[in-house]
Amino acid sequence: QVQLVESGGGLVQAGGSLRLSCAASGRTFSSVAMGWFRQAPGKEREFAAAITRSGSITYYADSVKGRFTISRDNTKNTVHLQMNSLEPEDTAVYYCAAGERVVATTPSGYHYWGQGTQVTVSS
Length: 123
Known about the structure:
Distance between the termini: 40 Å
Number of strands: 11
Number of helices: 0
Shape: globular
Order of helices and strands: EEEEEEEEEEE
Structural class: mainly beta
Helix content: under 10%
């Protein structure tokens, strides 16, 4: 079992930045791949970014590539999502997820989910 708690969401103007954090507990953190997903009202949950167990390889959705950066600290059991140049289209609930595969870019590849944190970008 892995418990995940996100933090760092909030309201920001377009062009601004936010840094999301996800604290993990309950299992050796370095044994799970981590991902960030987001879900806007009325839309399906979509992939944003993922990182392998060691942190050596990262993946990004085309919509966030060049603006978002995922990172992890296996000594502190945390994963972060640095979000720059935010756009109103980035408004969503952001979820942290942990999975036992090497890495995945779909929700089905993850076994554990946080409760989500709201990000709202105003124009």
